[in-house]
Specification:
The structure holds two protein chains of two kinds. Helix content of chain A is about 10%, strand content about 40%. Chain A is mainly beta. The mean pLDDT of chain A is about 90. Among the domains of chain B are: about 1-265, P-loop containing nucleotide triphosphate hydrolases (Rossmann fold); about 515-699, no CATH class. In chain B, about 60% of the residues lie in helices and about 10% in strands. In chain B, the strands form three sheets. Chain B has a seven-stranded mixed sheet with strand order 2-3-4-1-5-6-8, with helices on both faces. In chain B, strands 7-9 form a two-stranded antiparallel sheet. In chain B, helix 11 packs antiparallel against helix 12, helix 18 packs antiparallel against helix 28 (about 645-655) and helix 24 (about 570-585) packs across helix 25. The longest helix of chain B is centred in the middle third of the chain and has 42 residues, at about 280-320. Classes of the chains: A mainly beta, B alpha/beta. The interface of A and B includes residues 25, 28 and 56 of A. Strand 4 of chain A pairs antiparallel with strand 12 of chain B.
Amino acid sequence: MKLTVAHLILGQRGIITDFSVDTVPLKLLEMGCLPGNIVELVQTAPFRDPMYLNINGCHLAIRKETALQIEIELI
Amino acid sequence: MGKQINVALIGNPNTGKTSVFNQLTGLNQQVGNYPGITVEKKEGICKLPRGLKAHIIDLPGTYSLNASSLDENVVIDLLLNKNDKDFPDVAVVVSDAENLKRNLLLFTQIKDLEIPTILVINMADRMKRKGISLDIALLEEKLKTRIVLVSARKGTGIDDLKEQILNYQKISTEPCMHASGIDPEYFNLLRKTFPNQALYKLWLVITHDANFGNIDRGTLTKDANFNTKSVSDLKRLQQKETILRYKFINDLLKEALTIDLKNATDLRIKLDRLLTHKVWGYVIFSIIMLTIFQAIYDWSTIPMDFIDVTFASFSEWAKNALPTGPFSNLIAEGIIPGLGGIVIFIPQIAFLFLFISILEESGYMSRVVFLMDRIMRRYGLSGKSVVPLISGTACAIPAIMATRNIESWKERLITILVVPFTTCSARLPVYLIIIALVIPNETYFGLNLQGLTLMLLYLIGFGSALSAAWILDKILKLKCKSYFVIEMPSYKIPIFKNVALNVIEKTKAFVFGAGKIILAISVVLWVLGSYGPGENFNNAKEIVTLRNQSENISEAHLKEEIASFKLENSYIGIIGKGIEPAVVPLGYDWKIGIAIVSSFAAREVFVGTLATIYSVGSDEEETIKKRMAAETNPILGGPLFTFASGISLLLFYAFAMQCMSTLAIVKKETNTWKWPLLQLVIMSAFAYLVALIAFQVLK
């Protein structure tokens, strides 16, 4: 199983490795969600959805379905 | 005075772009709509040094020029269309010191359009606290721009910005980087095929599914020498472009930006730990909401009562002061109460927007959206629908205006369509009087039946809003791909000027927009109720006097009888008689029928209309209640207001779309009559059906 942002636990950090263009909106890229950037899980709502992330200093929340598309490596 | 300088304010959301706009224009601003669409157009005039003026347009916030919503299309449309009268002489990109990296993405795109561009770095006052330091000279050199450090909160840097706007011709129009690097071959082909167009503009036209300005996408893609790329290829290129731009920005900021974390004190982490907590987050949200509604009801009672009394005495005064005649009657009984009906909503609307804009400005609203998204999604709504649905319990009008921050048009439209189901304050007077009539004032297990009924009605309101949303989500086939991405901005203390201007603007929009319609309806109702055809209406006094000759009734009572008889024979009375067959199966008589018809203008008119029809001099609930209790059903006999007809009426009001001003605002927000008309027809038909079933089952 590939590790994705959706698998992070609170406070854990990872480096974004890859994602598919067809499933991840451009808007997310524009907000700084790019391969090579560090992502940290700040908070989750109940059922871990949506997820509140800190990507290289940019704070945003996305739904779990999107988080599942962003592959990471833990650091 | 020479020509005005056209300035376009562009920036990411949450950068304080509107604060900068407010600082530049103050009260010299107006809000309208872009022709044909619902996007708000904010523009204003700014006085520059040396007697010059700038026309400033505050474009919708956007993260990039890769538009995914109507709001964002507006930005591109203006920037691509040289012939637009608002085409900017100079673009001002507003950024936030804390999020400079992300903000610069948009900046580099704007620079590619070869428009003189100034970079404003806002919230400069927070830089020190966050440990941020910038090499401005280096940034200016590499970005080929002029940079102005501004604190819109403290008002610093604004004069400097004005000076830069004045000297816009000195600013380089050269791009700071080139997007063509993502696919040089393709861009070369573009350049050869369309030598007269700016390259990046072509790119934007190609990647967007819309026509912009004077470049027609159709002719562009039809050109024989030009091979179109597939949608996913283009998307991949857009992604590449974004990565390329970020690479440029990262390299630049590595040199020009240093963050000393030792100086950074982050309040955000502590607050977020509490405010977005799985349990405490919801508890705090509930407490805040309860407090706000308590405050709205409590605080607006005094000004609303004051407005009510003032307009009543104004009307009385006008009646006495003006010479008798139909025109004076129109003013005293039609126009003045009609105006009162508009003005009386101002306190509620103003308070509601006061709280909403404080929540928005502080950054808390994003947290609410975060907490509620999962729950709302089940019903085809977004986390961002929560605020309008809750505001709807005060009044649907500001609630519908509050849907503007929902980016997905489908989710926004569903929210607009279901908001009128929530129990607004105008339903309260109707509910209260009917509950008092048909529900016994008894207590079981410590629960008062009347109170329980009222609570049930509120629950029916929310329940039907959510169910309707769920159904709409299944039915509506809208091509509208919008992902849920929400920025969680840092917490800020709201800027008073922004909050005040927002409250003033929203209140003004209500008074002048919906107000016109309330006024028109009240005049029409007055005319229909005050005039009638034929002998019966004109000779009402004689007929009634004659009829009551044998009986010994007081003069006041006789007057009431005359008024009642007149109404029965007025146009509205005739209409009421006409619709009687339709309302009898629901357990109503023609008088309730009229009250329902007239309350299509606004629900609370119901009680007032019945008061007039039942010839009770005042709206006072006790007296009208007695009269209503004494009414008999003309067809079935027995009292008119029974448990069955009462429940039927309550349910009718719970579902029916009886609010002209809501319809008007839905028209304004959706820019078509289609949605408000559908709302009117479907909600009313459903209300009729439910009321019919309720009466037939219960009677």
